[in-house]
Structure formats: C-alpha cells, structure tokens
Amino acid sequence: MSTGHSKAAKEFLKNQTYAKWHDATFWSVRTKRDNMAYGLEEWEQLREKASAIKRHGPKMPRSSITSSIPS
C-alpha cells in the first residue's frame, strides 16, 4: 500500500546528494536540541507540561500550565 508520503519519499531519495545533506542536517539539529535539553535541570518538567498542552489543548487553564514552571 502506497501513501502520498511514501511516494514522495521514494522520489526524494532518488537524489542521494540531497538526501544525505537532509539526513546530516536533521541529525545536527537533533543533536543540538538534545545537548540543550540535557543542560536544563527542568527539562523533564517542561516536557510533561508540553505533553499536557498537546493532550488537553485549549481546554486546560493557562494558569495550571504556567504555575509550576520555574522562572
């Protein structure tokens, strides 16, 4: 079963130079993000708050999101 995404990926991967550049760029950005995350003591707390926002969307009161984030 082909999806629009799988068809686009197949076409994208035909240009190996661009695909390798994209892969290197993706991992570079991810590594930078991970290094910053590990440097923050409150990283897990921020992740939990972000997950709550994604799960509950606009129904969650803003005060409950921001009240326990360290300043």
Written overview of the protein:
Helices cover 72% and strands 0% of the residues. With 71 residues, the protein is mostly helical.
Nutshell version of this structure?
The chain is mainly α and 71 residues long. It has helices spanning 4-12, 16-38, 43-56, 62-66. The model has no long low-confidence stretch (mean pLDDT 84).
* Content-based structural category: mainly alpha
If you compute it from the alpha carbons, what radius of gyration comes out, rounded to the nearest whole angstrom?
19 Å
**H/E series, N to C?**
HHHH
- How many helical elements? 4
Can you tag this structure with a few keywords?
mainly alpha; single chain; flat; 71 residues; 4 helices
Question: Could you give the topology of this structure?
Answer:
Blueprint: H1 4-12, H2 16-38, H3 43-56, H4 62-66
